[in-house]
Structures are given as structure tokens and as C-alpha cells.
Amino acid sequence: MRALLALIKREFTGYFLSPVGYVTLFFFLLVTGLLFAQAVAGLTRTGSQGVEYPFAVLFGDTAFWFVFAFIPPLLTMRLLAEERGTGTLESLLTTPIRDWQVVAGKYIGAVLFYLVLWLPTLLYLPVLLNMSVSGDWYRPTGITFGIDPAYAWASYLGVILAGMMFLAIGLFVSSLVKNQLVAAMIALAVCLVFVAAGFALPHLDANDVWAKAVRFVSVPDHFRRDFTRGVIDTRHLLLYLSVTAFCLFLTARSLEARRLRA
Amino acid sequence: MIRVESLVKYYGEYPAVRGVSFEVPKGRVVGFLGPNGAGKSTTMRILAGFLTASGGRASIAGKDVFTDPIAARRNIGYMPESCPLYPELRVAEYLKFRAGLKGLGWAARRKRIDYVLERCWLKDVRTQLIGTLSKGYRQRVGLADALLADPPVLILDEPTAGLDPTQIRETRKLIRELGREHTMLLSTHILTEVEMTCDSAVIIYQGEVVEDGTLEAIRHKHQTNNLEEVFIKLTRQEGI
Q1: Chain A residues with CB inside 8 Å of B74's CB?
Q2: Domain span at B45
Q3: Which residues of B touch A94 (CB under 8 A)?
């Protein structure tokens, strides 16, 4: 347990010791900030041109997911690939720590930093939800939302679980290669499958089994149709959680296989 | 303390280690000798739990390294060849992280870190970034890490490789001192080093043990005072 905690702490603080963490945070906030501004503009527009679901402006756009797909690979590329490349994996794996603890420690460290990425965006919520506080500012008597807050909770739940899936994919890829850049590129390619799958939809018959399969994996569609409208569809959660579990399992196996090979 | 029985390791089709057996009794400092590519590092990596053997058995302090790897690793302080470290951490930070990985409690962590910093002459660089340290200091950080959990067995893979003469001397002195408290297996291909620091030697060539015994016994058996002659004779490199 101590070993696991030590590893989580090292991986989490590691993001603040290299420029990658700050650069990722910068671009992430730039993109979400722009989308926030768009959502606010839509909400305050007079006449019939306003937006119905402000969170769909933020998370429902395929363009957002194309940018977003770069973030998990950037966070996970170094996790195991760097240690394999520099040889520090040898010192790590010869301490009394089990393989699953190495995987869990690195994964949890990455997830914690991912949550830190989202933390500043909570500041947008009072505006997007049209929150008003009654009573004095120092002793509020009640908080009312002009827009149903369920949209926000569902969107955030979705975005955290989808991110966890992408991070698990990135960690697995990172365990296979020695070069960080290669790890990032392959992880990005795999993540983009989940983002770009929806492009096939207009070419498919809506009742086709393929269309169903595409809708099942197309993450932007999950957000456009469900999460940003306050709908939590367990099919999406099942996809995210099962891909996460499967990738983490494969990562542990890949560490084990490395011991056997060379 | 260290027991190796007919260990075999294949890299694909190539047998890097072919049935190595030896034993290191408690308190002994054993030099693990052999030319480059003889299988020294592979054997040590198997003992430290980084590689899994293709066949044979090995145990540390009675714990089998394949069936009970965590318990076996608790008894080992291992320093890999070329001593890989995280350049972005400071020396004390790195040791704190490693102490956590080795399961030391908070109080023990502070005490042991202070002890190993003192022991390996690292006090003046404790807040320095590892990336800015010289090779000699890095090697000492590696040694300090191996000592952290106060393990009964130390396995050091070429602890003096790449050091300058002064650093080699300091490291050997440290190894001699540590040999009084720990059972030690250290690999090298520098023969004077073995003569200065070890009680006995295991010589390995092409993945097989060709000589095993105390330095006295080896010298007596081959009727020479010069370990180098023995080494060259055993590894059949006399023509070179």
C-alpha cells in the first residue's frame, strides 16, 4: 500500500516537473475557454437564435473531441515508455511492488492530473447554469439554477469516464514501446477511432447493425445526444469502463511479458 | 543467502545463461566475474526479479525469486548496471520515493535516508537535481538506494564502471565497509577489484560457471598468484 501511494505521488507530481503538464493545461484551458465564450454568447443572444443545451456547445462538438483526443496521449506517453527507454523500469520493477500496483499507481497518477485539468472549468458552471444566490453573500439562504444542473453533472461524469478510457488506452500503448513520441502517436491514432467513428454514420443505413456499432463507440455522439442533455446512458458507461479495465489488464500483462522476453 | 540452481535463460533462440549454479553464504562478499556478454547481468537481473528465468531455480534468504518474488525482493538491495535514475528529481526526493516503494514507514524513511546520505557521502548534494550530478555521484545515489531498506543481501552490477580512479577507490572502500554487514554479490570485469574487495569469486564464461571458490582456493588450484592468468586461461582468450 505504501509502495502504491509513493508511486501515485511520484507520477502525479511528475507532471509538474516537466513542461508537458503545463503546456497541456494551457491548451486545454484555451480550448475550453473559447467554447465557454461561445456558449455564453449563444445563451445571451436575443431572438430565436439562442442555444437550447449550453453543454452541447462545450462537449457535443466533434471539433472539440478532435482537439481533446490529443490530451490523454500527451499525459500517458511518458508513463512507461520513458522508464523503458531510460532503463529506470529496471529499478522500479526490482522493488517489492507487484505489477498491478505499478499499473495502478501510474494510472491513478495520470487520472488525478486529468481531474486537475478539469478543475478550473468548474468556474464556468455558475454562469452556464445561470446560478443565483438569495440572501446576503456571506450567509446565502438559497441557491437557484436558471438551467437544470443535471446537464452539468451528467456532462462531467461522461467527460471524466471517457477521459479515463482514453488514459487507459494511452497507458497500455506506453507499455509497448520505448519511445515517448511513438507512444503518443499510436495512442492518438487509437483515441481518434473513438472520435472519428461518427463520420461513417451519414453513409450507413440507420437500422444497419454497423450503424448501431458505430453509435456504440462514437464518443462525440454520446455527448451530443445524451450526456449534455442530462441523459446518463449506461451503454456508454459500460463501454468506457470495460475498455478501461481491459486496457489496464493488458498493461499488467505486458509488464509481465517483458520479464519473460528480455 | 543466495542460492542459484541450474539457472537457464534464453533470449529467443540464444541461451544467455546455460545452467548456472552457485551459492553465496551469509556474510560473504562474492565477485561475479566474466568477460562481457558472459551472462553476468542476466543472472543478476533474474536474481533481482527483473527477468524470469527459462529454467532452474534461485532463492534469496530462503525465498524463491519465482514463486515468492515480493518476499525475495524485500531482502535485496539491487543496483542495476549503469544505474538509471530520474534526472528531474533531487537526490533526497528520489530517495524518499524509493523508500516509499520499498515500503518503509514515515519515521523509518527519514532515519534511513539520513543514514544512507551520510554513508554514501551524499550530504552536500541532497538538494541537487540528479540530472546535474557527475557519474560518480550518480553511482553513489544508486548505492544509497540499494542500502535504503537495510537489506541483508546486496546485488551490485558493475558498481565501479565508468568512474575515475579516485571515485573507484572511494567506491571500493565503501563496498569493503558494507561487506562487513551485508552478504554481497558484485559483478565486474576488473580483476584487481575482486582481489581488493571480495572473499571469493564465481567466474562465468559463455553462460556457464567455470570456476567457483575462495580467492585462496582458486589461486592454489591453478598454482598462480595472478588472478588475471586464471581468468584468461578459463575464458580461453590466451591468444588475444
Answers
A1: 96
A2: 1-75+153-240
A3: 48-50, 73, 76, 78, 80
Instruction: Of B121, B3, B19, B13, give the one whose Cα is nearest residue B62.
Output: B3
Instruction: Mark whether B118 and B38 lie in a shared domain.
Output: no
**B129 and B197 assigned to the same domain:** no
Q: Which of B150, B142, B151, B93 is nearest to B120 (CA)?
A: B142
**CB-based burial, B113-138: b 16+ in 10 Å, e otherwise:** beebbebbebeebeeebbeebeebbb
Q: Are residues B6 and B110 in the same domain?
A: no
For the sheet with B2-11, list strands across it: B14-24, B2-11, B55-60, B63-64
- Which residues 131-150 of B have a C-beta within 8 angstroms of A? 145
The range of the structural domain enclosing residue A117 comes to 2-261
Retrieve residue B98's grid coordinates. Answer: 524509493
Contact call for A9 and B100, based on CB within 8 A: yes
ipTM: 0.89
Using only the alpha carbons of chain A, give its radius of gyration: 20
Tracing cell 534511513 back to the chain, one arrives at B112
Same domain flag for B163 and B236: yes
Instruction: Say which CATH number the domain at B177 has.
Output: 3.40.50.300
pLDDT digits (tens, 9 = 90+) for B101-145: 999 988 999 999 999 999 888 999 999 999 999 888 898 899 999
Count H helices and E strands in chain A, helices first.
13, 2
In angstroms, the CA A173 to CA A234 distance is 27
Number of compact structural domains in chain A: 1
Closest approach of B56 to chain A, Cα-based (Å): 14
CA B73/CA A105 separation, integer angstroms = 19
**Per-residue model confidence as pLDDT tens digits over A153-206:** 999 999 999 999 999 999 999 999 999 999 999 999 999 999 988 888 888 887
Picking from A5, A6, A90, the nearest residue to B80 by CB comes out as: A90
If DSSP codes are grouped into helix, strand and coil, which group holds residue B145?
helix
Q: Which three cell numbers stand for residue A206?
A: 440507420
* Alpha-carbon gap: A202 to the closest alpha carbon of chain B (Å): 49
Q: How near does any CA of chain A get to the CA of B83, in Å?
A: 8
For B168-202, the three-class secondary structure string (H helix, E strand, C coil) is HHHHHHHHHHHCCCCEEEEEECCHHHHHHHCCEEE
